[in-house]
Automatic annotation (TrEMBL):
Signal peptide (UniProt feature, chain positions): none
GO molecular function: hydrolase activity
Residues at the active site: H97
Keywords: Hydrolase
Keyword Hydrolase included in the entry's annotation: yes
Protein name in the entry: Diadenosine tetraphosphate (Ap4A) hydrolase
Domain (HIT) ranges: 4-110
Motif residue range(s): Histidine triad motif: 95-99
PROSITE patterns: HIT_2
Length: 124
């Protein structure tokens, strides 16, 4: 089911760069790196833990297809895959989405730790 006034439920097919029966991918409107993709469920689910197994598989399939497409298009050297669940964890759009973020050599001075560095304690 779609949810009224949810910006991701309002996404149109012509914005999808990849899709299958249960999931779709589109470019993040404010990319943190070149090629930042978001993968969503077509049905409205508030967060990742609400997905059923078929949706998880559909998302996984688009993660793989997205990786392949991004490697061909932009030749990144690595990826971060991230899911924010809940406002406290930083989720701002309450429709399940997975960030697929390509990473490039030298994009930060010291990449060690990746997403582990999101909390200040990791910087000590
Ligand atoms: P999060 O903070 O994990 O909820 O991520 C929400 C993401 O959605 C952010 O990276 C935003 O840049 C992105 N975003 C917000 N609105 C749109 C939109 N209309 N189309 C594409 N991406 C969007
Ligand atoms: Zn929605």
């Amino acid at each position: 089911m779609k949810k009224k006034e949810c910006i991701f439920c309002l996404k149109k097919e012509n914005e999808f760069v990849l899709e299958n029966k249960l999931a779709a991918a589109f470019w993040d409107a404010h990319p943190v790196s070149k090629g930042h993709l978001l993968i969503i469920t077509k049905e409205h689910k508030d967060n990742f833990f609400e997905l059923d197994d078929a949706e998880v598989l559909a998302i996984n399939s688009l993660l793989r297809a997205g990786k392949k497409m991004l490697l061909k298009k932009y030749q990144p050297a690595g990826f971060n895959i991230g899911i924010n669940v809940g406002k406290t964890a930083g989720q701002t759009v309450m429709h399940c989405h997975i960030h697929l973020i390509p990473r490039y050599l030298g994009d930060v001075p010291d990449p060690r730790g990746g997403i582990r560095k999101m909390l200040p304690a990791a910087h000590k």
